[in-house]
């Protein structure tokens, strides 16, 4: 594993950036790599890839793929420890995703002082922070928090509650989570207490529950569920969001991105960012209409 945390940034026109991203997707050495692609400057048609290698081999492979696309200019930055995103592959170590540090009971004592620390005991619920979909959501949220505040946040499919707890711990006044799995709701409420987070979790399917509607409209909706329910819930998620509000969606595979994106674009959302980790994708979509 690399000891130097790097961020590799590539900028260029959309076609070049998309082609470079596809080359990263095709490289089997980069199957586990995390990167995002977004439109940086709409007026200039400038797109940007940010990649976060977790080993020297990954860093080399990423730079090699990007170098094959002369239309993008590449910059490599060494990250301060507080910013890097790394997921070690041995055991179940803590996970760093932007400002968030997700850890279990066995990591007590290894907690950094410069992060938002989330203690998550998984039990029977999904969401220790180790899965590519959860990491994608946290990275997307961390980026958005650099520019925006989210007063009211809904987490559909809360699992351990990690996402709503992350919101409550970073200043959201309302952080509500739902799940169709009763044990997850109980575990999420316990995790909220454990983290002294003012987040609440209720047993409900989707968004058509009075307790969920009553707290809306939301500034941000997380939904880390599977692609078919993400498509099925697209209208409900739109209605739950205020105009200009953001949906962070995950649980979909990279290969399902087009289908899920199409459902949201047709409802007036704008795709702001895609984050890839392993075979998984996280999407940042803003309600424009
Ligand atoms: C992949 S886990 C995500 C857990 C956590 N939010 C995270 O990001 O790590 C998906 C969760 O969504 C729940 N779920 C699936 N479909 C749902 C629906 N229609 N409404 C509410 N919860 C749902 C599942 O029970 C599961 O706990």
TrEMBL record:
Q: What is its main location?
A: cytoplasm
* Superkingdom of this protein's organism: Bacteria
- Lineage summary: Bacteria, Pseudomonadati, Pseudomonadota, Alphaproteobacteria, Caulobacterales
**Which protein are we looking at?**
Ribosomal protein L11 methyltransferase
Cellular component annotations (GO), alphabetically ordered: cytoplasm; ribosome
Residues recorded as binding S-adenosyl-L-methionine, renumbered to this chain, are: 134, 157, 179, 224
Cell compartment(s), UniProt: Cytoplasm
| Summary of the function given for this chain in its UniProt record | Methylates ribosomal protein L11.
Going by the UniProt record, its keywords in alphabetical order are: Cytoplasm, Methyltransferase, Ribonucleoprotein, Ribosomal protein, S-adenosyl-L-methionine, Transferase
Q: Which family does it belong to?
A: Belongs to the methyltransferase superfamily. PrmA family.
> Recorded E.C. number(s)?
2.1.1.-
Q: Which GO terms describe its molecular function?
A: protein methyltransferase activity
Checking Pfam families in the record gives: PrmA
Task: Enumerate the catalysed reactions.
Answer: L-lysyl-[protein] + 3 S-adenosyl-L-methionine = N(6),N(6),N(6)-trimethyl-L-lysyl-[protein] + 3 S-adenosyl-L-homocysteine + 3 H(+)
Q: Which InterPro entries match?
A: Ribosomal_L11_MeTrfase_PrmA (IPR050078), Ribosomal_PrmA_MeTrfase (IPR004498), SAM-dependent_MTases_sf (IPR029063)
For biological process, the GO terms are:
methylation
């Amino acid at each position: 594993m690399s000891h130097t945390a790097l961020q590799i940034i590539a900028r260029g026109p959309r076609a070049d950036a998309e082609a470079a991203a596809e080359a990263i997707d095709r490289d089997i050495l980069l199957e586990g790599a995390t990167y995002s692609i977004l439109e940086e400057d709409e007026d200039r048609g400038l797109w940007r890839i940010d990649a976060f290698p977790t080993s020297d081999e990954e860093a080399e492979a990423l730079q090699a793929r990007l170098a094959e696309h002369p239309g993008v200019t590449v910059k490599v930055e060494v990250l301060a420890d507080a910013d890097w995103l790394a997921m070690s592959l041995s055991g179940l170590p803590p996970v760093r995703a932007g400002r968030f540090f997700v850890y279990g009971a066995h990591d007590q004592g290894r907690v950094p002082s410069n992060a938002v620390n989330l203690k998550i005991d998984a039990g029977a619920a999904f969401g220790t922070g180790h899965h590519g979909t959860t990491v994608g959501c946290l990275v997307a949220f961390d980026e958005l928090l650099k520019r925006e505040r989210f007063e009211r946040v809904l987490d559909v499919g809360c699992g351990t509650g990690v996402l709503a707890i992350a919101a409550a711990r970073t200043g959201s006044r309302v952080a509500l989570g739902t799940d169709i799995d009763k044990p997850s709701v109980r575990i999420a409420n316990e995790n909220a207490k454990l983290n002294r987070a003012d987040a609440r979790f209720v047993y409900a399917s989707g968004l058509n529950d009075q307790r969920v509607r009553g707290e809306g409209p939301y500034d941000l909706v997380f939904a880390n569920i599977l692609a078919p329910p993400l498509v099925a819930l697209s209208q409900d998620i739109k209605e739950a969001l205020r105009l200009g509000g953001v949906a962070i969606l995950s649980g979909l595979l990279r290969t399902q991105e087009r289908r899920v994106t199409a459902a949201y674009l047709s409802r007036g959302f704008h795709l702001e960012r895609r984050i890839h980790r392993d075979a998984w994708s996280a999407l940042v979509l803003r309600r424009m209409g």
